Amino acid sequence: LKLQFLYLIGICDRSTDSMPSWKNGVAIMLGVGFILAMASSLSRSDGQLLVTRASKEAQYAAHQAVAAAERAEALAVQLTKATAQLQATQQQVLASMQKADGAAQQMIASAGQVQAEARMMASAAQKITTAEPPYNISAKDANCPEEALYLAMWILKRAKKGHVWRIADVGVNKGYTLASMLSAMKVPEYSPPDLAQEMMEYIGYDKFTMGQCGACCDCVDVFDWNKMRDHPWYKAIGSAEYKARVGGVQVWGVDPTQAHVNWNRKYYSKPGIPTPLNFTFVRAFASGTTGSVKFRDGVFLGRETTTLKNMGRGMDRQGEVPEEDVPIVTVDSVIPADIPELDFLITDVEGFDWQVRSGASRFVPTGNVGIYQFELHLPPNAASLPQLGAVVKDLEGFGYQCYVPVIGDRRRVFRVSASAWQPEWDSKLRGWKNLVCANVRKYPELNEVFGELENMLRPEKEIRHWKTCSIRGQFKSSAAPMKAWFEEHVWKDAGRPEDDE
User: Fold this and answer.
1) Are 166 and 338 in contact (CB under 8 A)?
2) What is the value of pTM for the model shown?
3) Rg of the chain on CA atoms, in Å
4) In this structure, how many other beta carbons lie within 10 angstroms of the beta carbon of residue 32?
5) Is there a contact between 148 and 179 (Cβ–Cβ < 8 Å)?
């Protein structure tokens, strides 16, 4: 159109003078038509551009709206999740508050129970101090420690599971102490009545006298029934949790008498016992230094009075046997170097206990013994032990707290301390008596154990049984009455403990 318009304009311009006027008019009209046509064409083109632009803008706006809707939807999802999380958190907080409330209620109940037990113990202590006569520390029945009871209560208080209990018994003699402790650890294959029954068969019933039963009536000392019946945790003995705290037992026994060593090696060798047990019995004298000594060993099974001083002279068949070299050992030399501590160290060496203690330098003064028990002997060996007050003071410095066991009184132990020591005790606490010292510094639970023992009243029936045993042992020490008494005892039934009620 543009080219045609320019062409017509050129014709009109060149032929103005020569062309007729009507032709010029026609040319002009044609030019105007072309101009109008071109304007119309331009108007349509601009409209289409506007429509196209508006369409694109509308599409862009639509995309923006879709994106905004998607963002809004995502925000809504996030808000829903946050709301759910908030609700879950609120439920957790509510549950925690409920648990805390329950724990608080349990603490209140436990506090009430502790207060009740404290009142009961205070009442028992008051009963001891008011209703019972003052304890006579020189009484001959201040004797016979209850190792199995100490052990059982320690097991109950000790949180550690799978513990291997290590016991050194110097002066092991007939082995009744070990049997009672194994019974306390729920090793049913061993018990004092079982040991006595097998000993009767081993030496012959006609030779079983009070010497074989033991001065503390050990042969009927059934831990399960005569020791723990009145203990508040009696039912816990033998529970799965209780048994889980006994992962095994290691024992070292020392005795200079061949008859005792042979017997213990025989009795403590029963097969098929599920509890891991390890026994080592050494024939030797024990003291503060190692060495050897000439010894004529004709001592019968059950004789407890052989020492490094008397060498068993005048006893049993000593004149019938040849002299031989017997080792002298220390606790340090008997216990392997890789054993860091002992739960129990028990010495019964007829007045030479302090020499044995000096040979246990890895254990006693270093506080590596849980319970240390030793005998306090009569002259002529009393000089081997220093003044007892000084001994107690030394042991307290190592972290031990000392008690005197009692058997013929309603109490089971009473505490002695260097700060409240009475000088006459140095002479009164002599004889077949023992001192039991608990390492409360390293094992704080032992403070609780012996605190309960101080306030645990012994049933009158148990005292009567013990006194009956003692009288029978003194006046009926022949074999036949002893066997009959053993067989008829209320704690004895075919060599196994039975409840007498």
Assistant:
1) no
2) 0.69
3) 50
4) 11
5) no
